[in-house]
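Contributing new complexes? Match this layout with phosphoenolpyruvate.
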Amino acid sequence: MIIVLKDGIKKEQLILFKASLEERYDVTVNTWHGVGSTVLGLIGDTTTVDEDWVNAQEIVENVKRVQEPYKKANRKFHPDDTVIELPTGQKIGDGSLCIMAGPCSVESEEQINYVASRVKNAGAAFLRGGAFKPRTSPYSFQGLKSEGLDLLKGARKATGLPIVTEIMSSSHIDMFEGVDIIQVGARNMQNFELLKQLGKINKPILLKRGLANTIEEWIMSAEYIMAGGNDKVILCERGIRTYETATRNTLDLSAVPIIKKLSHLPVIVDPSHATGKSWLVEQMSLAAVAAGADGLMIEVHNDPKHALSDGAQSLTPDQFDVVAEKVFALKEAYDRIMKNDN
Ligand code: PEP
Ligand code: MN
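Output block (do not edit by hand):
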């Protein structure tokens, strides 16, 4: 339930009203302050809330029931875009284009440091790299695990690039202390116990869309993290399973504007896992910018042919230079066109 308050109400009136709502009903009240308006979002069992009583309160402008099962992630509860700002200064969701790039798997110190410096020079704001890898086969390379995390932290120190890496188990959370953004992979999107634990920490979470999940299920997973108190969630569209076999997955770019309509959370696109083919990454990156994405996650490897995972979809650093230049140029043109539109 959403309660829009009248303009110019006093702070004391707001405190009293919120307290009376929480006292009368089994709800918690979220407050959003915008320019000239205040919106209260009620979370909990709102079926017992007496709409007539709420409407009769002097400070209330109007009341709306919210149909969607997600509340904290809902744009109705938080009309502004969420901007995630890292202690190191990078912002995601502020209208800029944030690129996260790096290898699928961290393989060695030389590899990660070299790729980190190359993607940084090309304009990437974050270094990605998997240390714990969710592989389809138990016989495939599973990642360097804690050693991989240490190598990532070393590359962070050497280049200054903050790091993004995937967590597979809540028992590993302590190991992710020095990680800037924790990634939840597609296969764990509905690992609700993991999501609940990540809700208790104060670090941005990059939540990838599950292989066979609807947009609503995906937002509900973000809600799990937010319900625990962690509002810093970034959504990542990485393709879904369809009957199409020409690509590894089918990139659902319409998810970007749909998420933006339904939620205030930033959304980025991963064209590498979506297509599985390096030659498709450039065009799908450009298309993601045109769809309104807040950023891109792109796999880059020093030697894709010999990569221990996902070589076929990885760009070389030279190819990444070209893609990055084009996407930043398109982003400038896109911003110009959209500004003229308003
Ligand atoms: C990855 O980013 O390397 C990865 C495994 O991604 P996804 O969970 O989207 O398959
Ligand atoms: Mn990968």
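Reviewers usually confirm one structural detail per submission. For this one: The longest strand covers residues 27-34.
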